Amino acid sequence: MRKKIKYFLFVIASSILFCCSSPATKYENAVDESKTCSMIFIDKSVSVNPSKQFIYEKYTKIINELIDENINVKGDKIEVFFIHENTAKAKVAELVARSEMEIAEGTSATDAEAQKTAFAMEIGKERSIFKKVVITHLTSQNTSTSKNNTDIQAALPLIDHEIGKGFKVKAYFLSDMVESMSGTNRRDFHKTPPVDDASAVGWAREDAARLQSVLPNISMAQIFIAKPFEPTASRKLNNPAISTYWQRLFSELGVSGEVKEL
């Protein structure tokens, strides 16, 4: 009997120690898919001009559609970042939905329908406000010297961090995706672009191996890329090997879903 009691106490103590142990860096809980964080990265480097009609129309359409699709419940949010030399510190907006619909048990069908209609109007107003804010940032001009460089890789820890907080993250890159940074372990695709898919894949593998340890959650991200090029753009302008690089980099980092080009 004493042995059984000792064993029982040992199991309880072990359970308490396990529960109180330090949490892992990696986000290990199921993501609350009822809350979506839409992260919009707008290229403000010198190579992208959002005032051009084609670019403005394409990006405005994408912004309107993603807000309509992703802002649905209280807590859904939009984060806007500028891509340039200092992307990691370039958050320019965080917009959180506040509209809430609570239909109490026993509410009549008529009242429930009225509450749904009121909620639809409120969330619609919030979406309209969000669209105006994001499009204002889309069209703003970057007059600082930060426009001379493009740090797209700096967006990856930002995405990872939001996933770690429990959001379902959709990341939208409104960019030509031409990484342009100097220094050790950095890529400058303006000076030295990948010449073919083989070099793009090799560089992606190298960079993923270096980045993987600091991006424990990014595999759960959904990635969308919208380049500013017209369908008739030349391969020299819209280098397909750069698309291969990013597709392979996200794949090597464990992102299971397709990286969609919009």
From TrEMBL:
Protein keywords: Signal
Leader sequence segment: 1-26
Domain of life: Bacteria
Protein's recorded name: Lipoprotein
